[in-house]
Amino acid sequence: MSTEKFFRHIDLLRCPVCGTAFSQCAQSLVCRNGHTFDVSRKGYVHLLPNAGPSKYDAALFEARRRILEGGFYDGVIRVIRDAMPVDSTVVLDAGCGDGTFTKALEGSVTVGLDNSKDAITLAARGGNPILWTVGDLTRIPLRDGSVDVILNLFSPAHYGEFSRVLKQDGLLLKLVPQTGYLGEIRAMIGRDAYSNEAVVSHLREHFRLIDRVRMTETFMLSETQARDFLAMTPLTFDVAPDRLDASRLTHITIDVELLIAQ
């Protein structure tokens, strides 16, 4: 399954360099212009030439996976699942990270795309039918009009590419923070409350916004869980470690909004 799944769905994929179709050559994807990408036995394919370093490393994604598996985002997953059409044949998770959301929301055929090899390696661990790809949102390696639903969860967007790969009646489900999201961490490090209105305005320039669904929950934390929350968020990237006292983080608020667009 780890490699054959890509060849079963090869017609869905396209070369990220030149945009032409792939064919199979041994255990590689080869386009008509000769660009070649090996399919890893670990269950993913690296389709991002000249990838640079990222602050989103394996430790961050391991912490994020533990938090997601701990149930803190189960309500968020239910909200997203309720918004997905029953017949979601092809689902693209654009900016899928470690793939925990992806696995909970997969369609008949699911592509997980992220620019972090660490994240995709973690997502593919253990084997599963999802097409895990290290790739670039600005050059999505899927053919035009091939996707029923795009999931864009806590991730940057490229609306030109989203429009290209979505079917005419396809849905974009974009999850964004609301004002209280991780507010306890923001208070700890002296950050202002978050506003997503600029993100909403930018989306409206490219897609028709159908609905906005907000979900807010607050949870008690153990110190171990608090350390994982501090490790998994880019809010703490440039914060001195002595300001990140996990013993002070006793609660956390998940305050998000799902933007449903077409």
Main attributes of the structure:
single chain, 262 residues, alpha/beta, 8-stranded mixed β-sheet, 3-stranded antiparallel β-sheet, 9 helices, 11 strands, globular
SSE order, as H and E? Answer: HEEEEHHEHEHEEHEHHEHE
Overall strand count: 11
| Oligomeric state of the chains in view | single chain
Decide which structural class fits the backbone: alpha/beta
How many helix segments? 9
The helix content is 25-40%
Please tell me the overall pLDDT.
93
Describe the structure.
- The protein has 262 residues and is of the alpha/beta class.
- It is 27% helix and 27% strand.
- It has nine helices and eleven strands.
- It has helices at residues 4-8, 58-69, 74-83, 100-104, 117-124, 159-165, 183-189, 197-204, 223-232; strands at 22-25, 28-31, 36-38, 44-46, 90-94, 109-114, 131-134, 147-153, 166-177, 209-220, 251-261.
- β5 (90-94), α4 (100-104) and β6 (109-114) form a beta-alpha-beta unit.
- α2 (58-69) crosses α9.
- The longest helix has 12 residues, at 58-69.
- The radius of gyration is 19 Å and the shape is globular.
